[in-house]
């Protein structure tokens, strides 16, 4: 989830937000920028720029010259994980952890490789070795998931109408038979309110700390027996909830459905037709109007290539949960893209000035929007989407594309073929 374009409303949305602090990923030290020639030849610089295929070729050359190059193996594993190439990710990350047992990030990424495949038991010992209290909590959660996780029952596919499009797409779903309203947000995992978790009889197996609405919160981790969306029921799945009080300002949804559920399906968020469509991952895609590459960073952060005007294409995130906004970037990137920044109407978030923008043109491939409202931060800060996640993921991110951008489209997330298919309705 991301910050709202209307910042007073963002405090309500933060109540349900599962931001980067809820992900298992850890920050990666960014390689220092060298000369232009180094940027072309050095795989670290290519990776930093988001040129993953070229970087992989460079790392393979390094590894062929020195099979004990732990860094090259680790980066090849990370690049494979970004594309959900699990066999390659497992092979290279296993090599990296064997060569460098102190490489915490590779242990975490190897664990994430297993988590994405629902092989939770194999992730547990890896998470226990990192020394991180957060990883230990997730290891406890995964150790309690017995039998087959993420069991999908009922119809092979389901189309669930939106109850509303704004402030975010909202559908009805049920938790252990208890119906409720849920936001759809690719910047989240699967999260519940404390109230519905208690009504559903969920048991907290472990806790981690986080920040919500500017305050320290306790995030509970548990196992959900049944989650039903339309004609599909999912059983035996991990879930999170937290114990902050409901904020004022009207009715709140019972939770958020995000990327960790979406990647178990071929998922279409049909903004124009106002429906969520879930199909088997093996389903044949319809021909989309536009198609761009898809990567998955951390545990729930989809990425692709996008442009701000003529600046790009470069890596952008796809966190759809920005209320009232279609683009998040920084003043630095806005200047590079010749986007006018409204310095006369600043907002302050976490002590950082954030200014309104309305770019003439932003695009994902040939999917183009004009004059979409957005924001440009004076500098990045924890929780700021897109550029604020660059240090965590280890590569440059120029922007985040969010809710308002997608309204004329149906957007299909193919986490098997790793494509984002955008269709104008």
TrEMBL record:
Record-given protein name: Tetratricopeptide repeat protein
UniProt lineage: Bacteria, Bacillati, Actinomycetota, Actinomycetes, Streptosporangiales
Gene3D superfamilies: Acid Proteases (2.40.70.10), Tetratricopeptide repeat domain (1.25.40.10)
């Amino acid at each position: 989830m991301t910050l709202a374009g209307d910042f007073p409303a963002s405090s309500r949305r933060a109540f349900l937000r599962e931001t980067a602090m809820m992900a298992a990923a850890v920050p990666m030290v960014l390689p220092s920028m060298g000369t232009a020639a180094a940027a072309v030849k050095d795989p670290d610089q290519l990776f930093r720029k988001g040129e993953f295929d070229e970087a992989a070729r460079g790392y393979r050359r390094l590894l062929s010259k020195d099979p004990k190059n732990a860094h090259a193996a680790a980066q090849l594993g990370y690049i494979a994980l970004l594309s959900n190439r699990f066999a390659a990710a497992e092979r290279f990350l296993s090599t990296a952890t064997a060569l460098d047992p102190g490489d915490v990030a590779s242990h975490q990424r190897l664990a994430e490789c297993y988590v994405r495949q629902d092989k939770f038991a194999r992730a547990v010992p890896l998470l226990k070795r990192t020394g991180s209290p957060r990883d230990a909590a997730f290891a406890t959660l995964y150790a309690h998931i017995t039998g087959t996780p993420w069991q999908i029952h009922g119809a092979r596919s389901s189309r669930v109408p939106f109850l509303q499009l704004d402030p975010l797409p909202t559908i009805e779903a049920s938790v252990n038979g208890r119906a409720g309203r849920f936001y759809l947000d690719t910047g989240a995992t699967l999260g519940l309110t404390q109230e519905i978790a208690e009504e559903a009889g969920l048991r907290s197996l472990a806790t981690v700390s986080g920040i919500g609405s500017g305050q320290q919160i306790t995030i509970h981790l548990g196992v959900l027996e049944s989650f039903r969306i339309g004609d599909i029921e999912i059983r035996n799945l991990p879930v999170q909830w937290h114990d902050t009080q409901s904020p004022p300002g009207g009715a709140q949804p019972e939770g958020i459905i995000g990327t960790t559920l979406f990647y178990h399906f071929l998922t279409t968020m049909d903004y124009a037709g106002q429906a969520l469509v879930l199909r088997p991952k093996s389903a044949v895609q319809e021909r989309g109007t536009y198609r761009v590459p898809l990567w998955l960073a951390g545990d729930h952060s989809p990425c692709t290539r996008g442009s701000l005007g003529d600046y790009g294409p470069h890596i952008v995130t796809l966190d759809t949960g920005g209320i009232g906004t279609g683009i998040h970037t920084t003043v630095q990137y806005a200047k590079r893209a010749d986007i006018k920044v409204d310095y006369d109407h600043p907002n302050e978030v976490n002590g950082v000035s954030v200014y309104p923008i309305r770019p003439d043109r932003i695009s994902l491939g040939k999917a183009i929007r004009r004059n979409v409202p957005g924001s440009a931060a004076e500098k990045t800060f924890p929780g700021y989407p897109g550029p604020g996640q660059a240090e965590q993921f280890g590569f440059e991110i120029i922007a985040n594309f969010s809710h308002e951008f997608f309204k004329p489209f149906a957007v299909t997330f193919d986490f098997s073929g790793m494509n984002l298919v955008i269709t104008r309705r």
